[in-house]
Amino acid sequence: MDEIVCPKCGSSERLYLISTIQKIGTAVGGGVGSIAGYLGRGSGICTGAIIGARIGSIVPGVGTVAGIAVGGLAGAFAGFFTGAAIGNYVGKYIDRNVICKYKCGRCNATFSR
Ligand SMILES: [Zn+2]
Questions:
Q1: Residue 5, domain member (yes or no)
Q2: N or C end of the chain: which has fewer CB within 10 A?
Q3: What is the pLDDT of residues 3-15, one digit of tens each?
């Protein structure tokens, strides 16, 4: 990776990547992931509802319903974290390789690479 230097003060230290897309990516990815995780809770990776229902079935009736609810939530959470991680990663990549905006911590100048 080549060294990035502030065009104003010439400092190569304390340069921060302005992560606009990374934040958007995390939020969007988390939202999409949680929906996907919730919808996909009965199939594939997210079998939380089925497992939850089985555990809940020890106490019949109410337990089954509660188990499905908890399992579905677990699926949504798992989806959220997976989606957020992917969104964060993609956003970071875009920030670093497409937008390339930096802020200098020494003189507060913002610049593009
Ligand atoms: Zn500077």
A1: no
A2: N
A3: 789 999 999 888 8
